[in-house]
User: Fold this.
Amino acid sequence: MNDLDQKIQAALRGQTGGDALAGEPNIAEEVIASFRGRHRALMTFTLIYSIVLFVAAIWAATRFWEAETVRAQLQWGGVSLLLMLIVMFIKVWFWLEMHTNRVLREVKRVELLLAARARSDR
Assistant:
């Protein structure tokens, strides 16, 4: 954390209700907050979809190990790989959404700091 971050947090702590904004949420709080935003239905859908795809990928991987021929192994291995790639892309998208929420939270902090400074300058 640099000096500017410390100054912003100190200014936020000086305000009433600023302690809630001055602290950094942990990863679990960020995940939960992403399910409480305006995209909660989409986030829930993608979570369920990624779980279903992950189970399907595991099922395809077990079929890969049980396959008798090389052709069947290649087919089931390809299906498993494709499903796991889709799951990974969903997870990357989810982390990008969490990062967007983090950036918006920081912008709101700066807005509050500027509003408090404008009030104190009057």
Summary: The chain has five helices and no strands.
